[in-house]
Design brief:
Layout (H helix, E strand, L loop, with lengths): L6 E8 L5 H8 L11 E3 L3 E8 L2 E8 L10 H9 L2 E7 L3 H17 L7 E6 L11 H10 L3 E4 L8 H17 L2
Parallel strand pairs: 1-4, 1-5, 5-6, 6-7
Antiparallel strand pairs: 2-3, 3-4
Bound molecules: guanosine-5'-diphosphate and magnesium ion (MG).
Length: about 180
Amino acid sequence: TDSSSNLYKVVLIGDNGVGKSALASIFAGAADSMGSDCELFGGEVCERTVTVDGESATITLLDTWDPQDESKWTQDQCMHTGDAYLIVYSITDRASFEKASQLNIQLRRDRQSEDVPIILVGNKCDLMRCRQVSVSEGRAGAVVFDCKFIETSAAMQHNVWDTFHGIVRQLRLRRDSE
Ligand code: GDP
Ligand code: MG
C-alpha cells in the first residue's frame, strides 16, 4: 500500500478539564521510556509512529482545541483538518458529555460528505464515585452519532492505548473501503 495513506491526523476535542492533555501526554510518551519516538511541536502537536496489528501508522495528534476561543478560528481549523477525532468528555461532568454531543453534531454537519472516524471517549473512569454519566448513556450516545465508544482513565493509563489503536483501525477500515 501507499505509505502516505498511513499518515493520520487525529484531533482531540472536548470541554476544558476533561483530560485531553493528559491523554496527549501519554501518547507523547511522558509515562514510558519510548518518549524519544515522539516529536513534540510546541507541546500541543505530537507525531509518533505506532504499530497496530503488525502494520505501522504515523499519527499526528493535535491537542490544540480551545473551548474558549472567541475568534472560533482555531475551532474551525480543528473541525476541518482532522482525519479522525477523539471527542472527550469526563464521566464526572454531565455538562462535558452534553458538549461532546454538540461537537459530534457539529462535526457530522461540517464534514457531511466524509465518513470521518470518531471515538467518543469517556475519560476519568477511575473516579467512579463521582460518576455523572453512566456507561450505557455513553454507549447510547455513540449509537446516535454513529461512532465508537470507550471509557478511559488517563490517571490509571486504562484503555488509553486501546483508544489510539482503535482510531487507527477505524482509519484503516475507511481507507480499505475506498
Ligand atoms: P484538558 O483541559 O482537557 O486538557 O484537561 P487536562 O488534561 O488538563 O486535565 C484536567 C485535570 O483532570 C487535570 O488535573 C488532570 O490531572 C485531571 N485528569 C485528567 N485525566 C484524568 C483521569 O483519567 N482521572 C483523573 N482522576 N484525573 C484526570
Ligand atoms: Mg489541555
